[in-house]
Amino acid sequence: MTFAVHGIAVARGIAIGRAVLMAAGRADVAHYFIEPGQVEAEIDRVRAGRNAVVEEIHRLQQTISQMGPKEAPHELGALLDVHLMLLQDEELIAGVKHWITDRLYNAEWALTTQLEVLSRQFDDMEDEYLRERKADLEQVAERILRYMKGVPSPVAQPPAPKRKTQQDLLLDDSVDVPLVLIAHDLSPADMLQFKQSVFAGFVTDVGGKTSHTAIVARSMDIPAVVGARSASQLVRQDDWVIIDGDAGVMIVDPSPIILAEYGFKQRQAELERGRLSRLRHTPAVTLDGQKIELLANIEMPDDAPAALKAGAVGVGLFRSEFLFMGRHGNLPDEEEQYLAYRRAVEGMEGLPVTIRTVDVGADKPLDESRRDEAHLNPALGLRAIRWSLSEPDMFRTQLRAILRAAAHGKVNLLIPMLAHGGEIRQTLSLLDFARAELDNRGTAYGPVDVGAMIEVPAAALAVRTFLKYFDFLSIGTNDLIQYTLAIDRADESVAHLYDPCHPAVLRLVADTISECVRQGKGVSVCGEMAGDTQFTRLLLGLGLRSFSMHPAQILAVKQEVLRADSTRLAEWAQRVIESEDPAALMAA
Ligand code: PEP
Ligand code: MG
């Protein structure tokens, strides 16, 4: 039966495909398709994994049979019996075989998919004892996965995903239909892992529009909906679903009429993309001759080609923290960072690259295990520059790596979340220190312009102090909105109050831009507002000439720029920001 689940639209477009339900914490499992000739080898890997775990349990049973009841309580033996029983359960292995044979999933993916199917069955059980056996099942699967990690897949490279049209879908329901991922939650680092993956769309139960998970989804340029509450409970593995990333809706088990309608929308969107791609080489100039800089936000050096392809004239925000996440405390050293930054600089072929120093904390923990650390309010805690200043060795290592990369092209250094004059001075003296260390070592490095992000209301209000110290400013509207309105950007329960059009937010943005313009200093917006075409005219009217956004948004924003007359927009923009209801005036 067809039904719809509503959430928050975060990445545009329509995806039609089969649901892949992801259990929490399963994002580290590889997801790719195998070739039909590799089916047997993949089944053998799972079988070998299972047999190895069975043997391990037999050995354990023998060991504990020689122990007394004190060293090995009776419950331990009973627990091992349950694990053995689960391992030999036909439904587990038959299900795994099905996902490998019929859907050509790799072994790990097949195992976790079947685990999810069985977990649901356990959840539905009346008997509490049986219901609790779900945890045992998870432990058993975890052991098999751990064993399989040591035995690499015979498939060397996951093949690239195939994108299918609606027409293909209706004609062909074979193994390579598009897949959409449905999860309760995905961390930004999980999401990044999916960048090269097979999925054509995402839905998560939690998250806000500018949560970092949503930001990474948007950078992948595939439809995504977050904050869809119980989506992961309502959908079953392999259900047909439509993700409408424009409306923030997921339609489950669509009827043929609905499928046809969305197929039409999908084709329209493809046509629109084709039309926009013609603007790639067109300079971004307004009708009244103002040159506008359209820059790209990137998460990894490998994103540089997509930025160039979209016609970006540089990188306005390289979120360097993605190099630091999911490393289990083993942070990248100077050489590794230098090579990564250099790759981004060289990848941009002479265009400028703005590297932001590490911004971890809040919804970007260094490691998943740290997520639950008892911080009462992580968004207000040791995040971004605050963390960097509390780890001066780590910070100087990063600064040295960035300075060294600046020997290979134009690099700007950007500091996140500054609020205090003391933090500014400390940051700049560590930068001097990093330069002195390179001088002492005789290591080559290049010049950098140094900029600050305006993300905290205090920074926007103290913009003149900031301009005394910095060459340029970049307005991080995602956080500026969060901190001005006291709305956690990752919390779907207050997402309706997260309002870029709030007069207080617009006032801070407008005053920051006008002070920079007055002093002749560079200013850009690198939050999500910059890539949202609803705000292009307003920001142009406020005097902004530099926008940084996901590569996929550049051409749509350029189209708005080409149609705009900034002189005429200036007076209108002032009226908008002075209004009690700016959104209404903007829509008029
Ligand atoms: C912002 O806050 O607007 C920004 C660009 O930084 P991030 O989204 O990474 O916090
Ligand atoms: Mg920010």
Describe the protein's architecture and organization.
The protein starts with a strand and ends with a helix. The longest helix is centred in the first third of the chain and has 27 residues, at 39-65. Mean pLDDT is 89; it is low at 153-175. The strands form two sheets. The protein has an eight-stranded mixed β-sheet with strand order 1-8-7-3-4-5-6-2. Strands 15-14-13-12-11-10-9-16 form an eight-stranded parallel β-sheet. It folds into three domains: 3-22 and 156-258, 3-Layer(bba) Sandwich (Glucose Oxidase, domain 1), CATH 3.50.30.10; 36-149, PtsI, HPr-binding domain (Enzyme I, Chain A, domain 2, Orthogonal Bundle), CATH 1.10.274; 282-587, TIM Barrel (Alpha-Beta Barrel), CATH 3.20.20. Helix 1 packs antiparallel against helix 3, helix 1 (39-65) crosses helix 6 and helix 3 (90-103) packs across helix 4. It has 588 residues and is an alpha/beta fold. Helix content is 47%, strand content 13%. The protein is globular, with a radius of gyration of 26 Å. The protein has helices at residues 39-65, 74-87, 90-103, 107-123, 128-131, 133-149, 166-171, 188-193, 212-219, 231-234, 256-277, 304-309, 334-347, 384-390, 392-405, 421-441, 457-461, 463-469, 477-485, 503-519, 536-541, 554-563, 566-578, 582-587; strands at residues 3-6, 8-11, 14-22, 179-183, 199-204, 224-226, 240-244, 249-252, 293-298, 315-319, 353-356, 411-415, 448-454, 472-475, 522-525, 546-549. Strand 10, helix 13 (334-347) and strand 11 (353-356) form a beta-alpha-beta unit. The structure holds phosphoenolpyruvate and magnesium ion. Phosphoenolpyruvate is lined by residues 215, 317, 319, 359, 455, 476-479, 526-527. Residues 179-248 form the PEP-utilising enzyme mobile domain. Residues 6-133 form the Phosphotransferase system enzyme I N-terminal domain. Mg(2+) binds at residues 455, 479. One of its GO terms (molecular function) is metal ion binding.
